[in-house]
Design brief:
This protein is an alpha+beta fold and about 650 residues long. Helices cover about 20% and strands about 35% of the residues. The chain contains twelve helices and 39 strands. Strand 3 (about 40-50) and strand 4 form a beta hairpin. Helix 3 (about 310-320) crosses helix 4 and helix 9 (about 495-510) runs parallel beside helix 10.
Length: about 650
């Protein structure tokens, strides 16, 4: 019988990205075996053959809140020759404090390597936190590998890129960095026009080591005087016999297989209740209760006047959802921590709430945000958690930060006084393009390994994990036009298939490492999983992860890194396999022989999934032996064992 129901037409860009904004144009450039991509005035993915040597070289302008305006490119000229290319263009960056025009020349050849020169001259005094070149080294083949650092005085020293995430700057006073890109060939990245230093970008989830201009020890924001010119140059050269140019490898078919279950359990899943949106959260309970989340997160911040009423409201919503309450308490540290925790404990008793746990974190301005010696004595952290233990007896106490992993890594809490460590995650801190968002998934395993290194077996929770920025060092960047914006709280991709694929990719990185709990969305606000009775694609992934909580993780083999993410867990009948396409192109996978049924969430099923919270269960079809996954599609597969 034919289904006579009319098909709902959905704009493809909205389905994929939650925005009609087109991805930026990419221009492929080559100089013999050296290839790269020009995007928004930046060089991306510089490769020698099939090996990524440099992830990016970009002349960036950061405003006083660390926002990064996208340059407006004009007069672009690309001239290609037999041996290489030459690119010139003009650019204009706009911030609330003014405009900064700059021009660029990029030249590359097999013999001389790559040269990228930029010059900026502001028409009026220009306020910036940082303006200049940023160089990104990738993680694969680099993290933990040897590097030779040339300093501004010409001296050289051998070192290593950090293996674990480094809370401090990795190297200072840099003029050049050399590493073995492929066996027998060393790549040297040189920098002229200023002094550079390096930080470990994994602290903010960025999958790279970032070498940036203007040391952090210098004051910021600062002013580039009107009429003055800032000129800088970055070069890339190779020592060794370069390979001959060849046709780049075609991506191999991903042949998926499942291993034996690990002694690791899938994490508990949380939903956040924003204190400023309690009414909206209450209204969404009936819609989001079927997700089956194990935790409801509610944050109490005395600086915002939160207290007994908010605690009671969080507890009521958690009870209505059928989840345990995980309270988060911001310790202002304006008075003796004992006094502050006494007041909070009294409000908790009066509320009648019985939280599953209370995570306690000092206010963000009372901990170390910048690298270097901590401004407050470490004794403050001890005082806060001793007070929490004393005033909240018989309570599971979490600790760390409600800010980035950076702040946890720079302010290790007194682990003997807490039952789990925590922090938040956002992907748009330094960049907002689609490919960077998916590349950032690589950093999760590094963050998890670093937490295990300093916290041992202490459980690890992520109190909020989104593409957009929940909190930050300054106010989130405004995004009234619903675009891809660094440092923005409201990222449109959270509402599209992209957000569902990104979330599954993050869980695929975290779950095998034994993460204890992850909060994947909210009942209301910018990170809500539904809007009214319209279910966003991420809803279905979060519901699937919540149903998997407590089940043993099954390793997934044969995945295609950066193209296909996969996660599996035990079920009473075998295993459930989740796959996500991390790209805008269709991907084909070969499934396990025992695969039985599949449900596909992609652009063709976007509208149906938006109207049906049980879509992945109702849409299951025979799986077959191979599967094509559309752009940013997610597939749930029931597999026998």
């Amino acid at each position: 019988m034919n289904d006579a129901r009319p098909r709902v037409q959905v704009d493809r860009a909205i389905a994929l990205y939650g925005t009609a904004q087109a991805p930026p144009e990419r221009i492929a450039l080559e100089a013999g075996p050296i290839s790269m991509t020009l995007e928004n005035g930046a060089l991306r993915w510089i490769r020698l053959g099939d090996t990524e040597v440099i992830r990016g070289i970009a002349f960036l302008v950061r405003d006083r809140n660390w926002g990064t305006p996208v340059p407006e490119i004009s007069d672009l000229d690309v001239a290609r020759g037999d041996d290489g290319f030459r690119v010139t263009f003009k650019a204009l960056c706009r911030t609330e404090d003014g405009t900064l025009p700059w021009s660029a020349e990029i030249v590359a050849s097999v013999r001389d390597g790559l040269s990228f020169t930029a010059s900026a001259t502001p028409p009026a005094d220009f306020v910036t936190n940082r303006t200049g070149f940023v160089i990104l080294h990738p993680l694969d083949g680099v993290a933990g590998a040897p590097v030779e650092v040339t300093h501004t005085d010409g001296t050289r020293r051998r070192a290593r890129f950090p293996a674990l995430v480094d809370p401090e700057q990795c190297f200072f006073d840099i003029r050049a960095l050399s590493h073995e890109a492929v066996p027998g060939i060393w790549a040297t990245c040189g920098m002229e026009g200023d002094t550079w230093e390096m930080e470990d970008h994994r602290n903010w989830l960025d999958a790279s080591f970032k070498t940036y201009v203007r040391p952090l020890a210098l004051p910021h924001p600062y002013v580039i005087p009107a009429g003055s010119t800032v000129t800088q140059r970055v070069t890339l050269s190779f020592a060794g016999t370069l390979p001959k140019p060849h046709i780049r490898s075609t991506p191999m078919l991903a042949e998926i297989a499942l291993g034996d279950a690990l002694p690791v359990l899938m994490p508990k899943i949380g939903l956040r209740v924003p204190a400023q949106e309690l009414a909206e959260a209450r209204a969404s309970v009936a819609v989001l209760k079927p997700i089956g989340a194990q935790l409801v997160n509610g944050r109490i911040d005395p600086r915002q006047g939160h207290g007994e009423n908010e605690i009671r409201a969080f507890a009521d919503i958690a009870a209505a959802i059928g989840a345990a309450l995980m309270l988060e308490y911001v310790a202002p540290c304006r008075a003796d921590p004992v006094e502050e925790l006494t007041a909070f404990a009294a409000a908790l008793r009066r509320s009648g709430a019985r939280p599953e746990s209370v995570a306690v974190a000092p206010a963000e301005d009372r901990i170390r945000g910048e690298p270097g010696a901590p401004p407050p004595p470490l004794a403050l952290l001890g005082a806060v958690y001793r007070a929490a233990r004393a005033k909240l007896p018989d309570t599971v106490i979490g600790g760390g930060t409600f800010a980035f992993f950076t702040e946890l890594n720079r302010n290790w809490p007194p682990l003997g006084l807490m039952d789990y460590v925590t922090h938040m995650v956002s992907s748009v801190v330094h960049a907002a393009d689609d490919r960077s968002m998916m590349e950032n998934l690589e950093s999760f395993r590094h963050i998890r390994a670093t937490v295990q290194a300093f916290a041992g077996a202490t459980p690890h929770r992520i109190v909020t994990m989104n593409i957009g920025l929940d909190v930050g060092p300054g106010d989130p960047a405004p995004n009234p036009e619903n675009l891809r914006v660094p440092m923005a709280r409201r990222d449109p991709r959270q509402r599209g298939l992209f957000g569902a694929a990104w979330t599954l990719g993050a869980m695929a990185e975290l779950a095998p490492g034994g993460i204890d709990a992850v909060t994947l969305g909210a009942l209301a606000g910018d990170f809500a999983l539904a809007e009214g009775t319209s279910f966003r694609p991420i809803y279905h992934v979060v519901a699937g992860m919540a149903a998997a909580a407590g089940k043993r993780v099954v390793p997934v083999e044969g995945l295609a890194p950066r193209r296909i993410a996969g996660l599996a867990h035990e079920t009473p009948d075998g295993a459930r396999l989740w796959l996500a396409n991390l790209t805008a192109e269709k991907q084909t996978v070969a499934l396990p022989k025992a695969a039985a049924r599949k449900a596909v969430l992609d652009e063709t099923s976007f509208a149906a999934a938006a109207g049906d919270p049980e879509f992945l269960r109702r849409a299951a079809l025979p799986a077959g032996r191979s599967l094509e996954i559309g752009a940013y599609g997610v597939v749930c597969i029931e597999s026998g064992r």
